[in-house]
Amino acid sequence: MQRKDPVDPGPAPGRLLRYGVLELDFASLQVTVDGRPVALEGVLLKMLLVFARHPHHVLSRARLIEDVWGSHARRRDKTVDVAVCRLKARLGAAGEYLSSVRAFGYRFGPPKATGIARAGPHGGSDRGPGRTRRS
């Protein structure tokens, strides 16, 4: 019986993912931030691949343990927290794309802008009728 790698490379969302300052080449598994190569291997690379395949989705710690370490791994939530912290540090400016979702897990996506209203299709705020920005 062969052991299956926990992260199946499978079909990538494209050969190259560009996400702000982060670039991930699925074919060569090369990662760059602001055009500079980032050395990622092992658990950190597997974790980034899992997040990149599920952008904007909240991934539970249990799901990350299964996808990164394997279904038979005996890991605790703290292991995931430490690995995410290390990944964020390695990614530098792109580390802000990883955010925690309290009591559940983590999300890979752009940081939310606060206090900024986007212009709606009719030139006004997209907050809806009667909604105003609080100071």
Question: How is the topology of this model organized?
Answer:
Elements: E1 16-19, E2 22-25, E3 30-33, E4 36-38, H1 42-53, E5 58-60, H2 61-69, H3 77-91, E6 98-101, E7 105-108
Summarize this structure as a short list of keywords or feature phrases.
135 residues; alpha+beta; Arc Repressor Mutant, subunit A; four-stranded antiparallel sheet; three-stranded antiparallel sheet
Give a structural overview.
This protein has 135 residues and is α+β, with helices and mostly antiparallel strands. The chain has a domain at 41-106: Winged helix-like DNA-binding domain superfamily/Winged helix DNA-binding domain (Arc Repressor Mutant, subunit A). Helix content is 27%, strand content 19%. The protein has three helices and seven strands; from the N terminus they run ββββαβααββ. Strands 1-2-3-4 form a four-stranded antiparallel sheet, with no helix packed on it. It has a three-stranded antiparallel sheet with strand order 5-7-6. The protein is globular. It starts with 15 loop residues before the first strand and ends in a 27-residue tail after the last strand. Residues 1-11 and 113-129 have low confidence and may be disordered.
